[in-house]
C-alpha cells in the first residue's frame, strides 16, 4: 500500500537510463533488488554477504505524498513472543488452567504503561496474533508481534531490555512459559549522504518537482528501513 512496487520500478528505470550513457559515466552502475518486504533485513543480509563491497554510493527512492531529499529513519527491532500455558475447561476446571492469553494481555498492558515514560523519539507497537480458540477453554497458547523503535542503535538496545521486562512480567504473573524471538538483524538508523541527497533534489527541482524542506519536518515524522 505504500508503493514498494514503485521502488523497484524506479530503480530499474534509473538503471536503464544510466546504462544508456555508457562510457560517458566514470565507474560502474549496479542495480540490486533487495529481498524481504519490511521484514527480514534484506539489505543488511546482502551487505553481510558482500553485495555492497566497493560501492561508493547507494540510492533508493521511496514514493510518498510529498517530495523529500531524505526521510528520517530511526532504528527498529522486530520481536515475536509466545506464551505457553495449560488448557482447561474455563467453567468446570479453571483451577487446572494456566492462561497464556492473560500473560500476553498483561505484557501488552505493561508496554502501554511503559509508553508514558519513553523518549519522544521512541515507539512501541504490537498486535496479538494468537489468543485462543474458544471462550470456554483456558488458552494454552498466545502469541504477539511487536516493533520497538528508537533514535539509534544504543537507545534501541536499552529500550529492548525494558520491553523484555514487560514480557517477562506477564509470564511471572500467570505461570506461563515465555519464548521471545528478536528477529535478526535490527534495522538501524539511516545515515543519509547529504551531497547525494542534495544533488537528487537539485536535479528533481530542475524537472519541476517541489520539495518540502527537510528541516521543517515535524519530529514525529519518522519511519524505519533496512
Task: Write a structural description.
- There is one protein chain.
- The protein is an alpha+beta fold.
- The protein is built from five helices and four strands.
- The protein has a four-stranded antiparallel beta sheet, with helices on one face.
- Helix 3 (100-114) packs antiparallel against helix 4 (153-174).
- The two termini are 18 Å apart.
Rg, rounded, reads 23 Å
Could you give the count of β-strands? 4
Percent strand equals: 15-25%
Q: Output the structural class.
A: alpha+beta
What would the principal axes of the Cα set say about the shape?
Answer: elongated
If you average the pLDDT, what whole number results?
92
Low-confidence stretches: none
Element string (H = helix, E = strand): HHEHEEHEH
Q: Which strand order spans the largest sheet, edge to edge or round the barrel? A: 2-3-1-4
Name the quaternary structure: single chain
Summarize the structure.
By secondary structure, the protein is α+β, with helices and mostly antiparallel strands. It has helices spanning 4-19, 42-48, 100-114, 153-174, 194-206; strands spanning 75-84, 123-130, 141-150, 177-182. Helix 3 packs antiparallel against helix 4.
Amino acid at each position: 500500500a505504500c508503493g514498494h512496487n514503485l521502488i523497484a520500478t524506479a530503480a530499474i528505470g534509473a538503471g536503464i537510463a544510466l546504462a544508456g550513457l555508457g562510457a560517458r559515466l566514470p565507474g560502474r552502475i549496479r542495480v540490486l533488488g533487495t529481498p524481504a518486504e519490511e521484514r527480514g533485513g534484506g539489505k543488511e543480509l546482502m551487505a553481510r554477504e558482500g553485495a555492497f563491497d566497493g560501492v561508493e554510493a547507494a540510492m533508493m527512492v521511496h514514493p510518498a505524498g510529498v517530495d523529500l531529499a531524505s526521510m528520517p529513519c530511526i532504528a527498529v527491532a522486530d520481536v515475536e513472543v509466545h506464551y505457553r500455558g495449560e488448557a482447561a475447561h474455563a467453567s468446570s476446571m479453571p483451577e487446572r488452567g494456566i492462561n497464556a492469553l492473560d500473560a500476553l494481555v498483561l505484557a501488552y498492558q505493561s508496554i502501554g504503561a511503559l509508553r508514558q515514560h519513553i523518549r519522544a523519539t521512541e515507539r512501541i507497537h504490537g498486535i496479538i496474533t494468537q489468543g485462543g480458540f474458544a471462550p470456554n477453554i483456558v488458552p494454552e497458547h498466545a502469541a504477539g508481534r511487536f516493533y520497538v523503535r528508537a533514535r539509534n542503535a544504543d537507545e534501541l538496545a536499552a529500550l529492548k531490555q525494558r520491553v523484555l521486562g514487560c514480557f517477562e512480567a506477564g509470564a511471572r504473573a500467570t505461570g506461563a512459559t515465555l519464548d521471545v524471538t528478536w528477529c535478526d538483524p535490527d534495522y538501524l538508523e539511516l545515515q543519509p549522504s547529504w551531497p547525494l541527497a542534495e544533488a537528487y533534489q537539485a536535479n528533481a527541482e530542475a524537472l519541476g518537482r517541489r520539495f518540502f524542506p527537510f528541516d521543517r519536518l515535524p519530529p514525529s515524522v519518522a519511519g524505519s528501513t533496512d
